[in-house]
Design a protein that fits this description.
13 strands; six-stranded parallel beta sheet; elongated; alpha/beta; 14 helices
């Protein structure tokens, strides 16, 4: 059996972590087993242990590099492959792994940030040298994410689509009705949905401005916002009506999507935006900012983009147009069509499994 060491800051119920969790659940774990090196305890720790993983904790402090070195020296006979997802410390981890003698070192880019100030872009360029120098293989969720993190090596990167267990997200009328009842939303209501961590990247400030305006005009409009994060309390204060529902961290996202009508995704940056894929798989229309890579479009006719430079009024007009043109038959057709796309986890997991096996056989 091959053991792959996955390096993360923390295992929480969030986008990038769920990418690996989806893969982990769908690979042949008799052939390949994941272990995790993280900086602190997270929400998914018990889940990965049930799948057979071990979790090792190393706090990110001034001795982080030395602790990583000590750990890898102790375990270098177990791990021939180290797969890093922690952007900030990625160069450190890869450099130490190279010095210790880990033969296969994978750098994985999950984002494509376009909002960095010049000083941070310079800092990223400097720290990026270690990533490109010490990684033996490069993986990204999109071409944009590869070019962002590996500007001199992106041509060597392998793109792994942020695939999902699509069957979980297929639309259902029955689920829609049940979840609306649970959320105290009338069946006749219109529902705007967003799923994402309450952090600057996801642009909740803009979301709340748009929702507050729309709800003044449409008494049948509701919104459900799923997620937690440092800006949650501040955003709750920005909401002007109780019809904007803050649902916190949820495990029933597929059902919440069924209960909703449009997915609003005005991110400041994204490597891909896995929740956009989930929403389209549910047959829902996803209205995204220009910062969401075009590769997030499943091609089912349920994806559109607007620039964040456009006015709130234009965003609101587009949302109203979409909500007024809802046809459940088309939604069901789009949901089933999504199952045929390259974002199906059953396809990607086989490719990932082959990738790891090829490394070990060298």
């Amino acid at each position: 059996m091959i053991r792959v060491l996955q390096v993360y800051p923390q295992l929480n119920n969030a986008g990038t972590e769920m990418v690996i969790m989806n893969l982990y659940r769908n690979i042949d774990r008799k052939m390949i087993q994941f272990d995790f090196l993280v900086q602190k305890k997270g929400e998914l720790d018990e889940n990965v242990k049930k799948l057979g993983a071990r979790i090792f904790y190393i706090e990110n402090d001034q001795d982080y590099a030395e602790k990583i070195k000590e750990f890898l020296n102790e375990h270098k006979e177990e791990f021939k492959i180290i797969h890093t997802h922690v952007h900030r410390e990625m160069g450190i981890v890869l450099k130490v792994a190279a010095k210790v003698g880990i033969p296969y070192r994978i750098a994985h880019s999950h984002n494509a940030r376009t909002d960095l100030p010049k000083v941070m872009k310079f800092y990223k360029m400097i720290t990026g040298y270690n990533i490109e120098r010490y990684a033996t293989h490069f993986v990204a969720c999109s071409d944009e994410a590869a070019e962002w993190l590996f500007p001199r090596k992106y041509g060597q990167a392998v793109v792994w689509k942020n695939a999902i267990e699509m069957e979980r997200f297929v639309y259902s009328d029955e689920v829609r009705n049940e979840k609306r009842k649970e959320l105290d939303i009338p069946l006749s209501g219109k529902v705007v949905c967003h799923v994402g961590r309450f952090a600057e990247q996801k642009n909740h400030k803009r979301i709340l401005m748009i929702l507050n305006d729309l709800m003044k005009k449409d008494k049948e409009l509701y919104a459900v916002l799923v997620g937690v994060g440092p800006l949650l309390d501040e955003m709750k204060k920005d909401a002007t009506t109780s019809k904007i529902k803050f649902l916190g961290n949820r495990t029933d996202v597929p059902e919440i999507l069924c209960a909703s009508d449009i997915f609003l995704f005005p991110s400041l940056y994204e490597g891909l935006g896995i929740v956009a894929v989930e929403a389209q798989t549910n047959g829902m229309y996803c209205l995204a900012s220009e910062n969401v890579p075009k590769s997030a479009n499943l091609g089912t006719g349920r994806f559109g983009q607007l620039s964040l430079k456009e006015s709130n009024e234009l965003w609101e007009d587009r949302i109203e147009t979409i909500l007024n043109d809802i046809e459940m038959k088309k939604r069901k057709e789009a949901s089933l069509k999504a199952l045929e796309t390259e974002y199906n986890i059953k396809v990607i997991s086989k490719n990932v499994q082959k990738f790891y096996l090829n490394l070990e056989s060298k």
